[in-house]
Design brief:
Blueprint (H helix, E strand, L loop, with lengths): L11 H24 L8 H27 L7 H27 L9 H20 L10 H28 L5 H35 L1
Helix pairs in contact: 1-2, 1-3, 1-4, 2-3, 3-6, 4-5, 4-6, 5-6
Length: 212
């Protein structure tokens, strides 16, 4: 295996777990942003914190890519390592981008359904994190497949929330088209994050099927 600068060998499964931990931290931050939202000008600290988490994720991705390039033997296929790493990084990127867009789109007040979405994303990230705790023992784990399915179930909840929220947004937004435009983009972003969680879980499921 390739080594970090400190001389330790890179454990790919540990790297996946750390990516999930960062996703959970970003999801908790998103929940905090929404619960405490005052105005775009109050977001400076949150934006910085979100970027710090995302930057830590980028460093992990680079470590994995550096290692997989030179390792002679990897515990699972290189392509699968790269794919799962990218899928987990997508989750982080989408959430950081959501926090940034509250500022960029000059959101004056938080939509009442945004908090529900953020809680679902946190739930999904936590399920993903639990699944990744067992991923290095996926051949013997009795709970990993259930956790992967659970992530998909949360995504279905997010789909239903998205469906009804967008319907309500457009059916009552005639007087404020800018509000509709802004929240359409934001809810699309939140829905994309839920999809990214499911895609990461599906990638895990595919890897398990290939290796069992």
């Amino acid at each position: 295996m390739a080594k970090h600068k400190n001389g330790k060998k890179l454990d790919y499964f540990e790297a996946f777990e750390k990516q999930a931990e960062l996703a959970i931290a970003e999801a908790k931050l998103l929940v905090e942003v929404i619960e405490n939202y005052k105005s775009p000008d109050s977001l400076d600290d949150y934006i910085e914190r979100a970027h710090e988490i995302e930057h830590a994720g980028d460093k992990l991705v680079h470590s994995v890519f550096d290692a997989v390039t030179v390792d002679f033997v990897t515990p699972i296929d290189r392509e699968d390592i790269i794919s799962l790493t990218q899928k987990l990084d997508d989750v982080l990127d989408y959430m950081e981008g959501t926090v940034q867009r509250f500022y960029m789109l000059d959101v004056k007040e938080m939509h009442p359904k945004a908090g529900e979405f953020a809680e679902l994303l946190l739930k999904s990230c936590e399920k993903l994190g639990k699944a990744l705790e067992d991923f290095d023992e996926f051949k013997n784990s009795k709970k990993i497949n259930k956790l992967i399915i659970d992530v998909g179930s949360v995504e279905e909840e997010a789909d239903e929330l998205f469906f009804h929220t967008l319907r309500e947004l457009y059916s009552h937004g005639e007087e404020n088209p800018l509000y509709v435009f802004v929240w359409d983009k934001l809810f699309q972003r939140l829905e994309n994050t839920a999809d990214a969680c499911e895609q990461a879980a599906d990638t895990m499921g595919t890897i398990i099927m290939k290796n069992c």
